[in-house]
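Severity: low
Component: inverse-folding endpoint
Summary: output formatting inconsistent between runs
Steps to reproduce: submit the following C-alpha cells with default settings.
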C-alpha cells in the first residue's frame, strides 16, 4: 500500500467515524477543505475518502455547494433492513458452526452491559448503540467472511444516520433487544445454524 493509499484509508475511517458519532450530523453540508483541516490532511486523500463514502450512501455530492451528510428516508430504511436482514441471517448461520467459547463469553458480557446500562434512570443512547454495535460485529467476525462483514458494517453505518435510531431503536426497546440477543446467543452456543438464522431474522424484523 502506498503512502497516498494509507492516507486515503485513514481519512475514510476517520470521516466515517465522525458521521457515526454525529460529529457530522445528517443534513449538514461540509466541504473538502473543512474536512481536510479537521483531519490535518491534504485534500487529495480526503477527496478519495469522500467519494468512497458517497458511493456507500453516507454522503451526497452537491455541485458548487459541498458535501451533504445524507439523512435516511423511510424508503432508505426499509431497503437497508431488507438487505441487512438477508446478509445478517447468513452471518448468524455461518457463525453457529464457527464461533468459539471466547466469542460467546464476549457476547454474554455485552448483553450484561446492555442490561446494566438500559436499567439506569437515564440510559446513555450512545453507550447502548456502541454495545449493540459490538454485539453484532462479534457475530459477523465469527462468521469468517470478511466481504460479508464489510458489507454489514457499511449497512450499519447507514442505519445510524436515521435520526430516530437512538430514541426508538436503542433506548425505548433496549429490553426487547436484550431478549432477542439472548435468543441469538443461545442458538449460537448450541451450534444450531437454522435456529441462529431464525433468531437473527426475528431480531431484524422486530
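Observed output (run 2 of 3):
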Amino acid at each position: 500500500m502506498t503512502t497516498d493509499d494509507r492516507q486515503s484509508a485513514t481519512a475514510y475511517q476517520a470521516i466515517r467515524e465522525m458521521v457515526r458519532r454525529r460529529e457530522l450530523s445528517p443534513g449538514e453540508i461540509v466541504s473538502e477543505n473543512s474536512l481536510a483541516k479537521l483531519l490535518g490532511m491534504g485534500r487529495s486523500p480526503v477527496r478519495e475518502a469522500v467519494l468512497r463514502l458517497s458511493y456507500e450512501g453516507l454522503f451526497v455530492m452537491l455541485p458548487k455547494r459541498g458535501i451533504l451528510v445524507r439523512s435516511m428516508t423511510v424508503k432508505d430504511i426499509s431497503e437497508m433492513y431488507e438487505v441487512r436482514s438477508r446478509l445478517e441471517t447468513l452471518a448468524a448461520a455461518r457463525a453457529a458452526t464457527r464461533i468459539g467459547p471466547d466469542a460467546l463469553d464476549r457476547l454474554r458480557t455485552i448483553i450484561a452491559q446492555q442490561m446494566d446500562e438500559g436499567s439506569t434512570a437515564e440510559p446513555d443512547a450512545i453507550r447502548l448503540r456502541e454495545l449493540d454495535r459490538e454485539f453484532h460485529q462479534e457475530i459477523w467476525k465469527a462468521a469468517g467472511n470478511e466481504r460479508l462483514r464489510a458489507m454489514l458494517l457499511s449497512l450499519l453505518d447507514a442505519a445510524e444516520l436515521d435520526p430516530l435510531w437512538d430514541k426508538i431503536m436503542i433506548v425505548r426497546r433496549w429490553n426487547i433487544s436484550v431478549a432477542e440477543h439472548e435468543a441469538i446467543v443461545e442458538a449460537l452456543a448450541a451450534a444450531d445454524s437454522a435456529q441462529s438464522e431464525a433468531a437473527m431474522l426475528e431480531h431484524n424484523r422486530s
